[in-house]
């Protein structure tokens, strides 16, 4: 089925998250006729909003890293620049068994940029801070992941333990790795932390690398930004851009099979090799036929669609619980923009974001004295503590955790509206690709290019560019015909 009469090669994009939407845009810009197929009834994937107190709050991605500038450039193209907002500079906290402490500012995944700063000493004690402070004087090691950026798959845990010691690893790096990457440092490759391996290779020191990354993010105008009204504005803008470009969008359609055959259009001028792909749904019904496919789905789905025999790394479950609370004592933002929770603190949640403190535009959109706080559950290797709980039980747990983290009692009766949103999180990319798609199929997603929108947006554009190149007639000779 050809959804439009543009006449270029017909490309199916499977998955309507940010990766799929960005790829669809690039493909249409490159002259392809695009049909995007999304399983859910709504677009956006892990960018999703929920209405609380009449305003939209993100229950998936809530911000984007400004590094690289790709997301801001996309927003500029989509006419969204004037909606970009920056978080309040209130700092964030770590809650441990010993209480709550402000997080040292300007580090990279918890690696301190200024090891002797008071905030670092408060976490590590003087001895621990000194151990980190002397790290730039240690011998440069050649075996480490940074030294072989792109090569050896050393874990962040091993590298930090070796260079900075157990205390910095356990008290600073571990809670941040768990909060941001949902995994322990010993399971996280250094490569998965954007820029760290390269900065370490350049400087030979983790502390100097953290400083370089901090300076780069300051130069780029701060580490994260968002869109007024929530990140779903990006999804809406991408969807209307796709429609303006004549792309077709089919939601509520789950692709369960892709197979390759021979195109009846093989001889048509401008058509690629003659390979034709058929997408089918769970009932075996043909969804569409096309010249090429871009899979922007989770790794588990891509592996199944490509009939990959090696099982992908396991996904794990997390859950976000967002509460709109009438509690004026939170006006003081007692934990700044939010807090990460170390294991052993007696709190089930792994992180809390004080959304109305972090994003002033959102505070202005709810009644005075009302606060929206968002808790995340599900540490690596364990089911989220909210899994299997009834709504009443989940709400009670969220209120207890929020009270402990914020230091302000929050009773379920003070909660005006709330919502819970389960998610599945896949493994970040490793140093080598885990799936090898056949010619005519490309892959995009955070498991390909790295976690977060700042990695996903350029990754999806690159995947679309590779597919366009494959589809150009000059490349026909290199494409095996089926
Ligand atoms: C709770 C949470 C908070 C986050 N916070 C941030 C943040 O603040 N900043 C940031 O940059 N990143 C954040 N992220 C990560 C970010 O959301 C993701 O990296 C990004 O959204 C991934 O986009 P994607 O399009 O690759 O995948 P997804 O958004 O997962 O999209 C994949 C799409 O494929 C669809 N699909 C699956 N199977 C099929 C099928 N068989 N047929 C058709 N369609 C199918 C799915 O329904 C989905 O829409 C967060 C993630 C979570 C879960």
TrEMBL record:
Record organism: Leucobacter komagatae
A GO molecular function held by the record: oxidoreductase activity
UniProt xrefs under PANTHER family: PROTOPORPHYRINOGEN OXIDASE
Upper lineage: Bacteria, Bacillati, Actinomycetota, Actinomycetes, Micrococcales
Protein name per the record: Oxygen-dependent protoporphyrinogen oxidase
Domain annotation Amine oxidase: ranges: 18-464
Stored InterPro entries: Amino_oxidase, FAD/NAD-bd_sf, Zeta_carotene_desat/Oxidored
């Amino acid at each position: 089925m050809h959804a439009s009469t543009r006449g270029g090669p017909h490309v199916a994009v499977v998955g309507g998250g940010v990766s799929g939407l960005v790829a669809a845009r690039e493909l249409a810009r490159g002259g392809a006729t695009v049909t995007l197929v999304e399983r859910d009834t709504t677009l956006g994937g892990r960018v999703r909003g929920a209405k609380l107190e009449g305003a939209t709050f993100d229950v998936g991605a809530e911000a984007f890293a400004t590094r690289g500038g790709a997301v801001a450039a996309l927003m500029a193209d989509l006419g969204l620049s004037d909606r970009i907002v920056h978080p309040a500079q209130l700092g964030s906290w770590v809650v441990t068994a010993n209480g709550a402490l402000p997080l040292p500012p300007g580090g990279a995944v918890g690696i301190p940029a200024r090891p002797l700063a008071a905030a670092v000493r408060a976490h590590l004690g003087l001895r621990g801070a000194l151990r980190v402070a002397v790290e730039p004087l240690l011998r440069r090691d050649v075996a480490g992941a940074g030294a072989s950026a792109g090569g050896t798959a050393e874990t962040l845990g091993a590298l930090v333990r070796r260079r900075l010691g157990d205390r910095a690893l356990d008290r600073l790096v571990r809670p941040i790795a768990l909060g941001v990457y949902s995994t322990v440092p010993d399971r996280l490759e250094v490569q998965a932390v954007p820029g760290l391996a390269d900065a370490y290779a350049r400087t030979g020191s983790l502390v100097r690398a953290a400083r370089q990354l901090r300076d780069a993010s300051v130069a780029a105008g701060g580490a994260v930004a968002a869109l007024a009204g929530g990140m779903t504005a990006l999804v809406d803008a991408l969807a209307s851009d796709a429609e303006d470009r004549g792309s077709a969008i089919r939601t509520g359609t789950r692709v369960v099979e892709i197979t390759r055959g021979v195109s009846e259009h093989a001889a048509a001028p401008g058509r690629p090799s003659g390979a034709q792909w058929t997408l089918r749904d769970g009932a075996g019904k043909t969804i569409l036929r096309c010249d090429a496919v871009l899979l922007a789905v989770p790794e588990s789905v891509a592996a199944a669609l490509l009939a990959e025999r090696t099982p992908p790394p396991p996904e794990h479950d997390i859950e976000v619980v967002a509460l709109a609370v009438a509690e004026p004592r939170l006006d003081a933002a007692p934990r700044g923009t939010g807090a990460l929770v170390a294991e052993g603190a007696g709190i089930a949640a792994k992180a809390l974001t004080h959304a109305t403190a972090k994003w002033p535009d959102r505070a202005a959109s709810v009644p005075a004295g009302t606060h929206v706080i968002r808790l995340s559950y599900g540490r690596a290797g364990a089911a989220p503590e909210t899994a299997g709980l009834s709504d009443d039980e989940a709400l009670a747990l969220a209120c207890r955790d929020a009270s402990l983290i914020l230091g302000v009692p929050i009773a379920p009766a003070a909660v005006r509206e709330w919502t819970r949103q389960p998610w599945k999180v896949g493994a970040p990319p490793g140093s080598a690709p885990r799936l090898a798609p056949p010619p005519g199929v490309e892959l995009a997603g955070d498991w390909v290019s790295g976690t977060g929108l700042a990695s996903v947006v350029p990754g999806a554009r690159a995947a679309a560019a590779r597919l366009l190149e494959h589809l150009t007639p000059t490349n026909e000779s290199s494409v095996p015909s089926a």
